[in-house]
TrEMBL record:
Residues annotated as transmembrane: 36-58, 65-88, 100-122, 134-153, 165-183, 195-213, 219-237, 249-271, 291-315
Any one Pfam family match given in the protein's UniProt record, by short name: Ammonium_transp
Membrane topology annotation: Multi-pass membrane protein
Designated name of the protein: Ammonium transporter
Major localization listed first in the record, in broad terms: membrane
PANTHER family in the record: AMMONIUM TRANSPORTER MEP2 (PTHR43029)
Top-rank taxon: Bacteria
Subcellular location: Membrane
Protein source organism: Secundilactobacillus kimchicus JCM 15530
Amino acid sequence: MTAAILCGITCWLFFGNIESFQFSFLNLNLTTLKPTITVLSQLCFYLYALIMFVGTSVQKIKWQFLIIFIPLWTFFVYAPLANLIWSSNGFLYRLGALDFSGGLVVHLTAGLTSLILSFFMRNTKPPLPRDSPLLNYVATLFILTGWLGFNLAPAGAFQNHGPLIVINTLTAAIGAVVGWTSGSRLGLSLDSSTLYNGIICGLVTSTALVAYVSTPSMLIVTLISGLICHYVTDLLADSTYFYDPVDSFGINGIGGLVGTLGLILFATPTVNKAGATGLLSGGLKFAEVEGLTLIVTILITLLGTLVCLGLIKIIKILILSRRKEAAF
């Protein structure tokens, strides 16, 4: 994991941020704080996505795979989507696409990448260490606290909406815990992981819409997300076709998807004039743009990840052929 993080930081600073936002950290004006915070915030978003799909496969791959896959994935998947959706020059951004703190760019990409990796690495399931309730509670506290910064980081020009973002973030955690727990009561025992997974599910779901919907709308979306994410994670846990020990697809992928669909339905300019008008308020145009953005995100992630794996396979074949030639 350390090798993956170091590789990711290097990739982002040297070409990821340039490809995404046409800005190099080498040109940072260190006398002002805002550009530095922007670069570091985007680095945090990127590293979250990276850590989630690495967590899916870290037990079954070597660091050599990661130092090839991560630069390729950054180049073919993450940076293009960050440019399209978040950059002021991005095509989807100019159409009016919204993704406040990464429901699409960060979480859906990480979840779909994890799904592909979990499929290709499904043959054996190494035993996982038992959960520690104390560590789960401590981790939950740190994650919940840190996520407030995660969701507040992109506030930028509309910082007056900070209270809305904080309230919606906490509401999202509560709503998803209730939804996740409701799913657990259908036959599974409750434990600390139920609370932990429910909170993470809510936080992930909130990222796409946290600054663009009312608090009651956020509660509805995350209640539904908790139920759906719980069902999907259970489904994948019993599957022989996928192995995802960190539930990255079930929580990040599905949470990002449900959050984006919630944004399409419930977005309203009454809570944020920089937002949009969702379907329930008669905003058909925004629904079309956001639906297109969702489809583009899914296609680029799936195709880009498969291209990365294909290139790695070609590189491996070339290396093996060179070794065979050297042996003669």
